[in-house]
Design brief:
Blueprint: H1 2-18, E1 29-34, E2 36-39, E3 46-48, E4 54-55, E5 60-63, E6 70-74, E7 79-81, E8 104-108, E9 115-121, E10 131-137, E11 146-155, E12 163-166, E13 173-178, E14 182-190, E15 200-208, E16 218-220, E17 226-231, E18 234-236, E19 239-241, E20 245-251, E21 258-264, E22 270-275, E23 281-286, E24 293-298, H2 304-309, E25 312-315, E26 320-325, E27 331-335, E28 340-344, E29 356-362, E30 393-395, E31 399-401, E32 405-406, E33 408-410, E34 418-423, E35 426-427, E36 430-431, E37 439-441, E38 445-455, E39 458-459, E40 464-471, E41 482-485, E42 490-491, E43 499-503, E44 517-518, E45 524-531, E46 537-547, E47 555-556, E48 561-562, E49 568-571, E50 578-581, E51 589-592, E52 596-598, E53 600-603, E54 609-611, E55 615-619, E56 627-629, E57 634-636, E58 641-645, E59 651-654, E60 662-665, E61 669-671, E62 673-677, E63 680-683, E64 687-692, E65 700-701, E66 706-707, E67 713-716, E68 723-726, E69 734-737, E70 741-743, E71 745-748, E72 754-756, E73 760-764, E74 768-773, E75 776-779, E76 784-795, E77 805-812, E78 816-818, ...
Parallel strand pairs: 31-40, 41-46, 48-55, 57-64, 66-73, 74-83, 75-84
Antiparallel strand pairs: 1-2, 1-4, 2-3, 5-6, 6-7, 8-9, 9-10, 10-11, 12-13, 13-14, 14-15, 16-17, 17-20, 18-19, 20-21, 22-23, 23-24, 24-25, 26-27, 27-28, 28-29, 30-33, 32-37, 34-36, 34-38, 35-37, 38-39, 38-40, 42-44, 43-45, 45-46, 47-49, 49-51, 50-53, 52-55, 53-54, 56-58, 58-60, 59-62, 61-64, ...
Length: about 1000
């Protein structure tokens, strides 16, 4: 066994020597713990606080292998892009767990720089998902990446272990997991297809029991030849004990098979593990056990017993989690709930010389958990068998003139099999041959030639580009086309070149100089070809026109006979270069207002001189009209003013458009007139007219224009006027009107202008008077009696506003009892007071304005005054005289005899009429004794439903009407109760 171990370790050491150092940067940024990031791109780890993930155990992150820029990271549940935002399909979609030792593992798809697989494992409490994988494509979401598919299951149930190892071909990648309650390792191979192969199953090492046995890291040595599996629980006989196990294993990265070397001593809570970068040391991390800390094994002997004997504690720090090799070659250890990363500064050194530092990396106040990113330590750094081709080429020249060509030469590496050339603006514009031949350009500017290549491993998507600068021909300038006078020489001049050739050479002083002198006799075109410092050639030409001199012609702007004060403009062609007029003026036009002969001499741009024929101008005398106002030029609106122009002219034209010698104006303004005689005109000085506005009074009333006698209304002319004069003679803004009439007001404003308003008609009510009285009425006891309230006399009552009066009537209550619509009023002692309303306009004089109805009773007197008190009117003012009346009881005893109460008279209720009744019934009853009397109606249950009488009453016979409309059908009982007597009667109500 010893010799085989030595052979394995020698092979491992050789492989380690063959693997280059970390050159790629795919693990330069880590995210883990409570939103912690650590960035290695500067060479030293620097904490970042921009993370959004909270993962206490098994996260994973990946970077661009060339630039070290973050691509994405995951907790095995969600996926964040480099902007720390969820990928569009990445929020809470994967089946990893925050309680899984190695929840996630990111594996780049071989030969594809833009696609990755995310492997996930569920936690020890959950066996529903197992090992699953998803794909991320960085082409999606604008280069930020998105999930293409997710949760494709590979194994169930599984432990919390996931690790990856590069295949021996340097291209493909093995993904390794472990089963539950067995010692089976599963290895899937990921190749360029991106689809994991069927698993290679190896039975090796200890059984990984369910629950706690799922916990703990599975790590690979950087050379991919060794594995270490930390088992959170281990079978001892047939039961599961609490002690951990650490299995030391081999891995064949050609076949995917796992072999068992042996178990290393373990206590209770071995959790994390990592090999050193040179594969010679193994670090085991305890978490939460009695012997917390980290210890090292020296693997260099290759002998298991010797390895076990080298066990050395390098730290007894508590709260440690797991270990991970960093991009800088150090070994970093997370500390649970501590704001530092620990580090083994020289992990290849033996024992404490490795240099443990418990506070190596401050985490900016954020706290770590148990896990660090699940990086692939055994990832090939330079997979020769999986290399993409690298595009490269050279040009024979990168700067040419328009019309020139360049010759590309392919210098691509890594055995490309296909070539794709593209040349913007070139001919040909593309080629798929390794040698595209010459590429020519006929347009100036920067043009790009791009080469992309591919082989069986894929495409060099970046390609190689070279810019070809195509120089334009020099902008040779022979000058603008020009015209010269016949016989004059012309100096030509070419620019923008270093060598020139002119043609034709006729009449030129030289043909190979930049500035020959030309003396052509006729129109001619000269051509020049110029060469610049780059050897590029350009051409230009100049047209020379030989011109004869032509005299100018003066054009007057109108008649040359002018009125005084007028002027005329004389103009010649404006194409000449200089002008000199006979009055020494210059320019192509002059304006003159004096008589005389005018001529001009001109010089054109070619120096040719010519003179015009003269033009004679004559100026007549001035016309000076005046305007005479017919009165003041300031007046009020509604008035007018006559304006008259001076006479003696043939034509008049006012600013109003009128053509008469005089006009009448009625509005403000400036009024002028222009007069004419012959061809001449003259304008008078305008007259300013001011028309001041007249006031516009409008009378407003404070109330109706018709009102009752004694009332009034306020008329208001409005404010802001200078004076007021009412038709009443009042001079205030407001007046109070109490009588009928038509009222108007005249006002003035600040300009002294006056105006009278439209009249307002007022109608006031007439003064009224009336005499209201009650007659003397007599009736026998028990009789119904109607007593009128009469309008005995009245004046203007029908024209007044009064429509109703209210009167209070006082009388002896023992003689009269109200019935019908007559109110009961109030009772005080032997008196009753009732309040009634009367409408005097419904009756003529002497008729009843109101009528009272009573039943005469045998009272304590033979008569009672009917006193009218407190008579008031609803509206208006009515002078009222009241005349009270009297009620007399017809005598039942002969004159001179004594009136006595006979106790032998009748008592009781007479039959109710009608009975049965449908709604109302008449009731007659008699009583023999004075005192408190009650008359009540009860329902069949004895409940009181109607109270007809409850008070003092005198002996006599009474008649009343019962309103039973509100009662339901049934048999009701009527009870009459006096101090000593009682009578009962029944009434039937039907519906």
């Amino acid at each position: 066994m010893r010799s085989s171990l030595l052979l394995l370790f020698c092979a491992a050491m050789f492989a380690a020597i063959a693997v280059p150092a970390h050159a790629q940067k795919q693990y330069n940024v880590w995210y883990f713990g409570d939103r912690i990031g650590v960035d290695f791109n500067s060479g030293a780890p620097v904490a970042r606080t921009d993370g959004q993930m909270i993962q206490p155990e098994g996260p994973a992150s990946i970077c661009n292998p060339t630039t070290g820029e973050l691509l994405f990271y995951t907790d095995g549940i969600s996926v964040w892009n480099r902007n720390h935002q969820y990928m569009p399909n990445g929020a809470f979609v994967l089946h990893g767990s925050t309680n899984t030792t190695q929840s996630a593992l990111i594996v780049p798809i071989p030969g594809d720089s833009l696609r990755y697989l995310i492997f996930t494992a569920d936690d020890k409490e959950d066996e529903d998902q197992g090992v699953e994988y998803a794909m991320v494509d960085m082409n999606l979401a604008g280069g930020l990446g998105d999930i293409v598919f997710r949760n494709r299951q590979l194994l169930i149930p599984t432990t919390e272990k996931l690790v990856a190892v590069a295949h021996s071909n340097g291209c493909d990648i093995w993904v390794i997991a472990h089963g539950v309650n067995n010692n089976w390792f599963y290895a899937w191979l990921v190749d360029r297809s991106g689809t994991p192969s069927a698993p290679v199953i190896s039975k090796a090492g200890s059984i990984h029991p369910d629950t706690t046995g799922k916990v703990g890291y599975l790590k690979a040595s950087p050379d991919g030849s060794k594995l270490v599996a930390v088992i959170g629980g281990k079978y001892l006989g047939t039961t599961i004990a609490r002690s951990s196990a650490v299995d030391f294993l081999t891995f064949n990265n050609l076949t995917g098979e796992v072999g068992f070397i042996g178990s290393l001593p373990a206590d209770q809570r071995e959790y994390g593990a990592s090999f050193s970068p040179d594969n010679s040391k193994l670090y085991i991390v305890r978490s939460g056990s009695n012997n917390e800390g980290c210890y090292q094994y020296d693997l260099s002997s290759g002998d298991l017993a010797t390895i076990i004997s080298t066990k050395t504690y390098i730290s007894n720090d508590s709260q440690l989690g797991t270990a991970q090799i960093g991009p800088d070659g150090k070994l970093y250890i997370t500390r649970n709930n501590v704001s530092f990363l620990a580090a083994v500064e020289n992990p290849n050194a033996a024992g404490v010389a490795c240099g443990y530092n418990g506070t190596a990396v401050p985490l900016a106040g954020r706290i770590g958990g148990l896990g660090l990113p699940n990086n692939i330590d055994a990832l090939s750094k330079d997979p020769a068998g999986c290399k993409l081709p690298f595009a490269d080429f050279s040009l024979d020249d990168s700067t040419i003139c328009v019309g020139g060509c360049v010759r590309p030469t392919d210098r691509s590496r890594n055995s490309p099999t296909e070539w794709q050339w593209r040349a913007t603006g070139g001919t040909p514009a593309g080629s798929d041959r390794q040698d595209p031949g010459p590429i020519c350009f006929d347009q100036p500017g920067d043009h790009t030639i791009t080469l992309t290549v591919s082989n069986q491993n894929g495409i060099d998507v970046l390609g190689k580009s070279i810019t070809v600068k195509v120089l334009p021909p020099p902008p040779i300038d022979a000058g603008k086309d020009t015209t010269i006078c016949r016989g004059k020489p012309l100096a030509l001049r070419a620019t923008q070149g270093v060598r020139y050739v002119w043609s034709p050479g006729t009449d030129l002083s030289c043909t190979d100089c930049p500035d020959p002198i030309a003396t052509p006799a006729a129109d001619i075109t000269y051509y020049v070809m110029g060469t610049d410092t780059n050897g590029c050639v350009g051409t230009d030409s100049i047209r020379v026109t030989v011109k004869e001199s032509t005299p100018p012609t003066i054009t007057p702007a109108g008649p040359v006979v002018l009125c005084a004060g007028d002027s005329i403009t004389l103009t010649v062609d404006g194409t000449f270069s200089s002008y000199r007029w006979s009055n020494n003026a210059s320019g192509p036009a002059i304006t003159v207002n004096a008589s005389g002969d005018y001529a001009v001499t001109v010089t054109d741009s070619f120096g040719c001189v010519a003179s015009s024929a003269p033009v004679q101008v004559t100026v007549a005398a001035q016309l000076s009209p005046t305007i005479t106002p017919g009165g003041p030029t300031t007046f009020c609106d509604g008035d007018s003013l006559l304006l008259s122009a001076s006479s003696g002219f043939q034509r008049y034209r006012w600013t109003t458009g009128d053509t008469t010698a005089s006009i009448v104006v009625r509005s403000s303004g400036s009024y002028g007139v222009t007069v004419g005689s012959g061809n001449c005109e003259g304008a008078a000085t305008p007259v300013a007219v001011t028309v001041n506005p007249s006031p516009a009074p409008v009378i407003t009333a404070s109330g109706p224009l018709s009102f009752c006698d004694g009332d009034s209304v306020v008329l208001d002319a409005g404010g802001g006027f200078g004076s007021y004069r009412w038709s009443t003679g009042d001079t205030t803004q407001r007046i109070t009107v109490r009588s009928s009439g038509s009222y108007a007001v005249t006002v003035s404003n600040g300009f002294g202008c006056k105006r009278t308003s439209a009249p307002v008609d007022i109608t006031a009510g007439a003064a009224a008077s009336a005499t209201i009285g009650i007659p003397v009425v007599q009736a026998a006891a028990g009789a119904r009696v109607k007593i009128p309230i009469e309008v005995r006399t009245q004046t203007n009552l029908e024209r007044s506003c009064a429509t109703e009066f209210t009167a209070t009537i006082r009388f002896n209550r023992t003689l009269l009892h109200p019935v019908g619509n007559t109110p009961l009023g109030t009772v005080s002692g032997m008196e009753r007071v009732i309040t009634v309303k009367g409408n005097p306009k419904q009756a003529t004089t002497g008729a009843a304005a109101a009528e009272l109805e009573f039943v005469a009773t045998l009272g304590n007197a033979t008569s009672t005054p009917l006193l009218i008190e407190n008579l008031t009117w609803d509206k208006g003012s009515v002078a009222t005289t009241v005349e009270s009346g009297e009620f007399r009881l017809a005598e039942i005893c002969a004159e001179g005899t004594t009136r006595l109460i006979d106790a032998s008279g009748s008592f009781g209720l007479k039959p109710i009429r009608p009975n049965p009744t449908t709604g109302s019934a008449e009731l007659e009853y008699s009583i023999l004794e004075p005192g408190h009397t009650r008359l009540m109606l009860s329902d069949p249950l004895g409940n009181l439903v109607l109270k007809l009488l409850d008070g003092e009453i005198h002996p006599g016979t009474y008649i009343t009407t019962m309103d039973l409309n509100a009662l339901p059908a049934g048999l009701y009982t009527l009870v009459l109760q006096t101090p000593t007597q009682r009578a009962v009667e029944q009434v039937m109500v039907v519906k």
